[in-house]
Structures are given as C-alpha cells and as structure tokens.
Amino acid sequence: MNVLIATDGSAAATTALRTANRLLSLVDRHLDVLCVAPAYRTYEKGGRREDYERRILRETAQVLEQARDSLIGNGVVNLLTEIGSPSAVLVERAEDYDLTVVGPQGQGVTSELGLGPVASRVVEHAMGPVLVGRALRSEDTIRMLVAVDGSAASLHAVETLGQLFDLRSVELCLMHVAETPWVQLGLEEDWTTYSEEDKEKSEAGKMEQELVREGEVVIEQARELLRTHRLSISTVTEEGDPASKILSEAERGQYDLIALGGTGARDMKHGMLGSVSAKIAWDAPCSVLIVREPDGGGEEGR
Question: If you count Cβ atoms within 10 Å of the first and of the last residue's Cβ in the chain, which end, N or C, has fewer?
C-alpha cells in the first residue's frame, strides 16, 4: 500500500504520523512523508526568493528527518519536499495514494479543537481516503467505530479498513444511524405529540420502520466484508441525526478511530453520512478515516 503522510513539524502532525504508524498494516507498506513549504509571496529582484527557498528547504529537510526517526523499521519510507500551497498540493496528490494522513492542526495553532485550514480543505476535497490522525487512547487494544449506511462510500470505508489497517488487536463496532424521517418531512415540532398508533399509520412512521429493517441488512453487509479477519464485532443501531449520534457513541465508547464514507446515499431512506463527514472530522475526540466512493463520484453535501 502507498500512503502519503503530511508533516510540518508541528505536534499535531507528529501525533498523526505516530498514530498512522500504529494503525496501518505492516504488510507491503510504502510511506511517502511530505513536507510542503509555503511559496515565497513577496518576490523582489536581487535574489531574495532564492535565499528563501534555500532556507526553507533546509528547514523542511530537518522536519522530514525528525519524521523519519518515528518510522524506523516500519516499511519503506521516502521523504518528499515541495514548495507551494500545502492544501492544494495534498488535495492534488491524494488521488494517487491508497491513503493520505494529516494532522488536525498545523504550525502556530494553539487550539486542540477542530481542523486547521489545511486539514479542513483536504477532508472536504481530497478524492482518496483521508485519515485525520489524533492521539490514541491506549497502548494496547485499538477500538474502532465504523459507521455504515449501505452506500458505496461507507462499504468502501469498511473495505479500506480491511485492506490497509492492522486489525489483529482491534475491538470493532459497526454502527448504523437511521436518519429520523420526521425531521426530513418537517414534522419535528408535532412528532412528539403523535400517539404510537398515529406514528405507525403515518408516512413517517412507516418509513421509520423500513429504515430500522434496512439498518440490520446494512450492518450484515459490512460484517460480511470483514469476515475473513475473524474479528469480534459488536453493533449499535440508533435513530436521529447521524453526526451527533456517531460523535456521542465515539465519546461514550472511548474509541480510537471513527471510519465512515464521505458520500452517502442521497434520498430520504438513507442516512447521508457524506454530508456530515466534515463535522465528524472536526468534532471527533479521536482519529477519523473518511473514504469516498470508489470512483470518487458525487459531490459531498455541505
């Protein structure tokens, strides 16, 4: 597998690199560690641009050597330097890799919450799988929460886990969130006053029942994709807003990784995981893997 790991020498980037090093399979692993230095913006005659580029290349070389030290003995490691827009370079390169790894924040960011501008752009626009790496909770067992909605993207996320990640010491939970139909039908203010009989007879109630049944099928599809790994898999089914339910479960279960598709099915019968993937990447208390549809098709809902 070919993995692109972005680093700028920041604490968050170093944590992401170490997390990826722990999570990813060691089989046939090739890691390209890339440091993108910002371009010289105020060029004037007299060689100042050349002086800047020589200096910044020395600095990036130091950053990359520090990154290599964290990866010794773990597959092929190639160090890369480029000058330009970090987000633009990463988005362009991501399509050529099996996985792109970024830290949630970059140099100079003091907040531990949310995504910085580079990570945010990569999450929203990169066509290949993206791992936003945060610190792991444990040195032993890894806990993974995999959100599935039956879409091509979410099933591809399950396949990506099986292909790229080391699942030998993993506790894995498959989660399906049925997006509450009464919200989509504009009934949020009245739904709580409905009797159970009225709910069952209503269009929203029938849709809700169908979503529950479909959720069971979706979870079994995902379980089947992981069968060869012989994992002990637990399951969670919920109804409501996908982003809030997934984030709540991640916090409650003290998970190390949330994996989900970046583009969900776009009709009223399915949860739109793609439309909430950026929110989860932003607010998650752990690392997040976002995988788009295999052909990269579809624009993510925003």
Answer: C
